[in-house]
Design a protein that fits this description.
The complex is a heterodimer of chains A (444) and B (264). Chain A is of the alpha/beta class. Chain A folds into two domains: 308 residues, no CATH class; 55 residues, no CATH class. In chain A, strand 2 and strand 3 form a beta hairpin. Chain B is α/β, with parallel strands linked by helices and 264 residues long. Chain B has a domain of 182 residues: Rossmann fold, CATH 3.40.50.300. Chain B is built from nine helices and twelve strands. In chain B, helix 5 runs parallel beside helix 6. The two termini of chain B are 35 Å apart. The C terminus of chain B is likely disordered. The chains are: A alpha/beta (444), B alpha/beta (264). At the A-B interface, helix 8 and helix 9 of A face helix 2, strand 7 and helix 3 of B.
Chain lengths: 444, 264
Amino acid sequence: MSELVSNDYLECLLKSLSIQSEGISSLGAPANNQSAWLKQLRKQAIDRAGQLRLPTIKDEAWRFTDISPLAKLPFKPAQALHTLKLSDIQSFFIEETNNRLVFIDGFFAPEFSGITDKEQLIIGNLPSLIESHASLVASHLAQHAQYHDNIFTALNTAFVHDGAVIIVPKNAVAAAPVHLLFIATQKETTNYPRCLIVGEANSQVTLIEDYVSLQNDAYVTNSVTECYLAPNAQVQHIRIQRENTDAYHLANCAVSLDHASRYQAVNVSFGAQISRHNLDVGFKAETGECAIDGLTIITDGQLADTHSCIDHIKPNCTSRQQHKCIADDAAHAVFNGNIIVRPGAQRTDSSQSSRNLLLSGTAQIDTKPQLEIFADDVKCAHGATVGQLDNEEIFYLKSRGLSELAARNLLTYAFGAEILNRIPLASLKHSLEQIVLNQTQSSR
Amino acid sequence: MINQNSQTILNVKNLHANTDGTEILKGINLTVKSGEIHAIMGLNGSGKSTFAKVLAGHPDYTVTQGNVQFEQQDLLAMNSEERAQAGIFLAFQYPIEIPGVANNQFLRLAYNTVQSKRGNEELDPLEFDDFVREKMKLLEMNPDFLDRSVNEGFSGGEKKRNEILQMALLEPKLGILDETDSGLDIDALKIVAKGVNHLSNKDNAMIMITHYQRLLDHIVPDYVHVMESGRIIKTGGKELALELEKHGYDWLHSHQQNNAGVSA
């Protein structure tokens, strides 16, 4: 793989950007609606995107994830046009909540969206929140997800025109979860979902960031999510990537944690031909906590890469991470879990576990826990295992009358269920369990 | 209970088995009739647990000689799930933990699988719940164990009770209890023994593998067999276990040598 990969993808996108930057608000909101700071932000991101290149497997962070197929695709940005009816998308809804923002190809679809907890939440799409809460949005948008050395974040920021903004005001507790549903319908395009979550002091919210497809062709999702938690705020963040298996999914999520805030995440990846999820969590003040669980289940020729970085900048913070991968057939899963304990971040308590299950002789899993510790009074535990289903466990189940297939399916399901059980919404958990069961059953 | 007219459930003839090229079982002969309770005793490494696993069809062991009839069927031709469906049940010495699978889910799956193979009706979750709770009373198990992951975080005694609960649900013809008494305090032992006694009847049989007389105070065997180096070297009634308890396994050797001397 040379560095001279044909960069049709990038060129095509940048070309469409240069057209845009002349009349920069050609997408989404009307021209006069984009404030000066946003124009400035986009311009900087466009400039930066022009200086960066697509990563190749020669870049350490992309060593196992070859995105050269993406580089060859001349994908244009998706357009705001859809012909969907409510009945087309209802099956994606989560029955426990009616707080829902729907985005189709990255564009807000108010006709399918609704918020029941209007009292507890300031919520809407980016243009409307920029209008009503300009300074708050400006102080967080693109402040947590850095684009200077990340081409995908730079491109997303360059194209930022719409997105989900959730502000949980001081002391507010959202009664029902918020479902952010991103639906891809246009083939051979790139869509740019963007989320901004701000939990103000002592607030609490649960949200589900959900990526689905209503098409079977290739397309690219390039999403960026930023989350800031003020002192004592809590967020439970469930992220589901269930795009079609021809899609490319490139996601960056950045979380900034202020004093004594708590961030809990469950990240589930089933879909996409090639997916990459970068998750960066930074403890910006003391006594924050985060618990991050991840589950990747892939088969056929899928590639799913999770890169996380938990940055203990300040002392007395606690992080716990458990990531599991199940790879069948010729699938390839990657996990790189970086934990940094900065000088002075004393009494850090951090644990990380990477457990991986290979279901076939041709599947591949690369896992790399990476601890960088620069403080001396810390507790850091980590472990990684890669294995197959245990023969003693299979025998135990068979000795209870289960067939080999049923035994293997049950154990595979159980391996994933430990993560899915952390999802607090029964209906969502159930539908994901069905996906796991179908995937394990169909693969044999 | 011994009844000469009852049917033979298990007939083991000259059974040899090895694992990784090492021969563990070196010619076992054993006949078990319905209604009987057999105890197999012996030191560590004598092959007791291997015998139990071979009967249940563990894939790590290869049978090299001999045959095993189970209710007129060739047991060795069946794989482990077929044996379970046909009525063999092995209560494990170290039951496996399955985090992520609720115990009731697992129990119902096993029950319904076996029921359907035997041509019986399956139970839906509600029916099964009533059914399993009734069985749990026998073992004085807290119904909370239904919602927990299979064996995960269970104490030794709880795991063993969960094994006997599975036996109660699957109603085997032949129950094989592999050191079910190990790791049990006396109260748990009594509860487990009560469960086994309750499940034992004239139509089924039990093989108990144990080191100690202690279990046999509570589940009284009809026969006691002593294994050594992969063979059954002595068979007697329940009093044999008491003798072993009193004199140790060495006594058997001197005793046997004496016997040998006499018969020579």
